[in-house]
């Protein structure tokens, strides 16, 4: 995919190290950065003691506004120092407003970046994940802590389960797949699933990707009772993968949060960058 605009997020308290990784990606791709400073704003109080509580709320909002302004100045200096093309937007609002805003802004980017400063933030992760993964039309790149993803990955692991989410992720990653030296299509416990392609799982996908000039191998992995995510992570580590491509949330997000799931496991922890699409 030709990346000309990244969309990323930061919070008032996020360390600059996360922003610097985004800066490195933009410089490597010669791309524009659309950065959203995001946070959940406290709602005005409604009670019989409204007058007193309103004063406290206003003082809290004034402090938030000052912190936001300082953070914008700080990030602006960092981006200017690196000579980036960028815009910074501030969205401190309600849960639903943040979702609508992110979905709207995502129409004008090529790739959405998610790092642990957002994913691990219990206050802001839900509306960002909801808008980025479920409602936007753009792929998501999950960035591990301290790692700047290689935009020219040599070894790509493609997770395949014959579901539409996986197919969309592959389409969004097709240039990475085309240009990689080695692409492994990984299928875990294929015969525990109702496969919709040929009798040999992954064969149709391998043929399709081969037409794009990819050096393809299909790897059938048995979980041996382990979680699918654990099997994929272990394979990616052992083979030195630079990028994992996978569909996001084949099951409902609530089900994955309660019972566990591959997407949630990779959002919680990954040592390899992951390109996702729902």
UniProtKB/TrEMBL annotation:
InterPro entries: Universal_stress_UspA, UspA
Superkingdom, taxonomy of origin: Bacteria
Domain UspA: 154-277
A Pfam family recorded for this sequence: Usp
Family: Belongs to the universal stress protein A family.
Name used for this protein in its record: Universal stress protein
Organism: Cohaesibacter celericrescens
